[in-house]
Amino acid sequence: MVGRLEGKVALVVGAARGIGKGIAERFAEEGARLVLADALAEAGQATAGELDALFLRTDISKMEDAEAAVAVAVERFGRLDIIVQNAGIYPWQLIEDTSPDDWDRVMAVNLRGAFNGARAALVPMKKQGSGRMLFTSSITGPHVTSPGHGHYSATKAGINGFIRSAALEFSGYGITVNGIEPGNILTEAILEHRDAAFIKSMEDAIPLGRLGSPRDVANAFLFLASDEAAYITGTTIVVDGGQLLPEGADFRILPK
Length: 256
Ligand SMILES: NC(=O)c1ccc[n+]([C@@H]2O[C@H](COP(=O)([O-])OP(=O)(O)OC[C@H]3O[C@@H](n4cnc5c(N)ncnc54)[C@H](O)[C@@H]3O)[C@@H](O)[C@H]2O)c1
Prior knowledge:
This protein is α/β, with parallel strands linked by helices. It is 45% helix and 15% strand. It has helices spanning 18-29, 41-51, 63-77, 100-128, 150-170, 188-193, 196-205, 214-225, and strands at residues 9-13, 33-38, 54-57, 82-85, 131-136, 175-182, 235-239. The protein has a 7-stranded parallel beta sheet with strand order 3-2-1-4-5-6-7, with helices on both faces. Bound molecules: nicotinamide-adenine-dinucleotide. Nicotinamide-adenine-dinucleotide (NAD) binds at residues 13-14, 16-20, 38-40, 58-61, 86-90, 109, 136, 138, 182, 184-185, 187-190.
């Protein structure tokens, strides 16, 4: 059977672990040729080794790093069909405890990183007259939030605005631009940066009864990267187990 991304060249940024690793694994299963980029060199190399992918240590907040990652794909494979800008940080910090430097770092990775990835990938994609730009947004920011997510929410709402603008500007080049809004996905970062009470409260808030997996999110990215999504641009898909649905705090209360 031919994979859904057979012959496609994909760059996944933030691919060493978590959701990004899930995306890289799913794309590899479907036949994509992969370049992985991440700030974590050791974990990134390990993931790339598992998937027979190229790896470049990258800080996506720096334009030169974004350009270097795109250059690896173009030099090695002659083209770039798909970029997924998934790298993101989510320190858990009240606004009153957030310094201007804390704020700037979250903006730099999550939001400028999206711009850097798009700007760098635009060069080969415009030349080819085709491309898929994909971004990891979140339900946090565009739809919901909780205390401690001021900077993070601002970046993810910002990514959705950027997706719409980029989709419009690049529509004449054969490039589509879309994103995924994950709900709460069980990854290393969630376990590192959120406590057990937070994770339990999220589980209780999810109608499908569990946190999502990286593969749940990766499947939606695969769709947006595939030929089936050719007519979709400027939008985001929510992958949240129904978390956005309840109107009240307890959706398990039923009519008598
Ligand atoms: N886990 C969730 O519940 C959830 C929900 C919604 C959105 N997201 C988003 O999904 C993405 C991945 O999150 P995750 O939970 O897998 O986190 P994670 O920390 O496990 O993975 C993020 C990856 O990005 C890399 N990274 C961080 N800063 C970078 C930089 N400056 N340059 C390059 N790479 C960098 C990290 O090294 C890591 O490998 C993020 O954008 C996050 O905001 C996560």
